[in-house]
Each structure stands twice: as structure tokens, then as C-alpha cells.
Amino acid sequence: MTQTETIAYDVVVLGGGPSGENVADRTRAAGLTTAVVESELLGGECSYWACMPSKALLRPIIARADARRLPGLAQAVQGPLGTQAVLARRDEYAARWKDDGQVSWLTGTGADLHRGHGRLVGPRTVTVTAPGGTVTTLTARHAVAVCTGTRARLPDLPGLAGVAPWTSREATSAKAAPGRLIVVGGGVVATEMATVWRALGSHVTVLVRGKGLLNRMEPFAGELVADALTGAGVDLRTGTSVESVTRDNGTVAVVTSAGDRIEADEILFATGRVPRTDDLGLDTVGLEPGSWLDVDDSLRVSGTDWLYAVGDVNHRALLTHQGKYQARIAGAAIAARAAGTPLLDGPWGSHAATADHDAVPQVVFTDPEAAAVGLSLAEAERAGHRVRAVDVEFSSVAGAGLYADGYRGRARMVVDLEDEILRGVTFVGPGVGELIHSATVAVAGRVPVSRLWHAVPSYPTLSEVWLRLLEALRDN
């Protein structure tokens, strides 16, 4: 290794994904000199192996499903999808795995990009080891922000490395549909990728250790998605874990807890995420390598006055939009502290990530879509709130019938009976991802139920489900 120089900045950001980019954008907007350190592609997981490629893959699949529910159009879309065209569009949305555009944007903010592996070597000090071995030292006058995200967690199965399993990266960037695919897991990645590859022609088997899918949402969300997957030809097996996995002559063989042997061409493990903090030098500042980083609402790491952790790495909400939200908060907090101005870190203050606690939205882009914000009924009850769940079927909504013949979906709002606000809202059905922001506004804004009656939904749209929910609350 060759030591070159030491460069001083106001802020050093470790990780150039959406969270890191947005921290840099906010600190640069405040006039602070900022460096971003990235060892892979600038733009991170979301741009190349998660949000953008997965949704590009899913969009034509969902559009075809919607079209097939409309007489007069259904007969025009009965053939198979053009797999290569779908994959080519995916490639475009993943920028063909080149980050030139992201680099242009970042440098346009005035931030400096340092390519290489960044590592803390003490308070406010980071070394960057470039691919050629050259080491540069960066010092931070005000803050270091850890925005390194997560990577896929793989189970501890003997010989797994020799199987070359897929994770979310391989599943979203594959160049062809495997003939047979085993998906292990029942969460967002598992359900979305099962949807994708089944629609593109793969025989898909999903193995779920638990009782059902999407277990962090209301139970009916997973049930409706499971019904749709099995209806599409997916072999869904719940209460089933993997006991062993091998690969021989290109064929993957799994033995399940039920004693079944399943063969496939590829196997995807979608079994959770772990933080990318194992080789960041956390031990040099008194923190545990490989750990999630605990933060306050200004995203500052507990026990420090200079270290921030933003996005997935703090384990608050492993979602791109929440990481970007946190980045805006953290950037503003870093700038305020640097300027010596008062910190507005009380609930819903501009320097507090309050929404992380009770107003986190998420959309699962399966067919049907599942979208939720805030607390589920079970979560609200565990938190000690006195609540009531109000459910309606989308069959009662005129706009749903117009959207698609045989529209199947359900909505729930979790009503706090004491504060008379919404603690959570869940929608399941085609197109409901575009409804969730209205629910997010209601939950985050703590809008009284009595006032929601005056937010009149346009007729005939899916949003009329709000009126049906309020009527069900009133009448039952």
C-alpha cells in the first residue's frame, strides 16, 4: 500500500447509495465541504440490484395482468411476454451497471468522490484504499456519516458457497430466465422475484419457513398474494425449511424439512439482510464490527458527537425512501450543529426522523400489490394502543370494478379509539401502490378521523375506498 495524502473536509460520507448521496447533497447545500467514499457503483444497491431493476422487471408483468382483466383488451395480450425486451428495459433502468450519470450528478453538487474501501481509523478519520492499493486519509471537521447499507444474509448451510446461490443481486440482474427456480423466503424480495421469474417462464417453487407470506404486514396481505402466486402456477410450500442444498452438474438439489427433494437450475435465498459494517473500523471508535448502528432521531450514533448512521445500516427501516428521508434529516442536523444553530429535534422537528417510528410506508409490487403505512393491528395492540380494525373489500368501490373486471382486494385502517386518528392503513389489490401516499399523509399528519370525512375522494376512483372505510367505522 502507498500512502499519498491527507485531505480535510467538513463531512465524510461512507457509502454512495441513495442515503449517502442525499446526505452529501444536503451538506453541500449548506456550504459544507463533503467527500463521498464508494467501493462499488455510485448509486448503491437500489440503483443496480434492487429498486430500479426489480421494478423495471415487474412493470410489464403487472401491466399485462391488468390488461388481461379488461374485456376488449384481454384478447390482445394473451401471448407470452417478450423476455428479452423485458430484460433489455431492465438493463436500461439499471444504467447497464455503469455509474457515469450518478457520478456526474454527485460532482455537480460540489462533493468529491473517492473510489475505494473506506475505513475508520479513529474519531473523524477515514482511510480510503483505492483499487490499486493507494491509501488516502480523509479527516472530517464536523461529521462522518456511515451509509454503507446492507447485504443479503445467507443461511449457515454446509457447502452453500459451492452451490453459488442467487441473492437479490443475481435475481435482479440475471441475463436469462432459469428453467426451474427455487426461492427460499417469504418476504418482499421472495414474493417479487417469484412473480417476475414465473411470469418470464420459469417453474418457481417457493419455500417459506413460516406460516405465510409478508409476515410484517396484515395477515390478509400475504394471503391474497399467496393466492395469486399459486394461481399463476407457483409451487408455494409454507412451514418448510431447507435442510441441505447441493449442486451437481449444474443442477441444484434441495432437501426440505418435510423430506422432499426438489431440483432446480438456480436457487434464490431471500432470507434477510445484514449490515455492511464488518470491515469499517468500528472497533477503532469503540463500536462492535458487523453490528447495526443505534442512532437517535437526528441519526447520530449513540455515544458519539460526530458519527452518524443513515439508511439501512441503522436498522430502523430497510427502505430506500426512508433512507433518503433520514439523509435529509441527518444532513440538516449536521449543518445545524456545524453552524451552532438550535437543533429542532423534538417530535416532527426538521432535525428528527420521527416518521421512522410510526409512519413508514412500503409497497410490495406483486400482483396484487400490497401497500401499508404505520402499524398493523397486532403492532398497535402490542404498543398498548386501544384500537379497532376497520376492513372493507374493494368490491364495494365503483372505481375498482372499472379498474378491472373481477377486481379482488381489501383495505384496513387501524383506528386509535382514544386519539381518534389512524395508527395504520393497509391496501391490497391491483394499483394500490398509488393510494398509499394518501394514507401516509393521514398517519404522519395525525389527521382526526372526523376531518377525513371532509377529504372527499373523486368518483369513480380506487380512492373511494376511503369513504367505504369511514362508513364502515361509522356503521359498525
UniProtKB/TrEMBL annotation:
Gene3D superfamilies according to UniProt: 3.30.390.30, FAD/NAD(P)-binding domain
Keyword check for Flavoprotein: yes
Record-listed FAD binding positions: K55, G118, D312
Residue ranges occupied by any Pyridine nucleotide-disulphide oxidoreductase dimerisation domain in the UniProt entry: 360-466
The FAD/NAD(P)-binding domain, residue ranges: 9-321
Family recorded in the similarity comment: Belongs to the class-I pyridine nucleotide-disulfide oxidoreductase family.
Entry protein name: Pyridine nucleotide-disulfide oxidoreductase
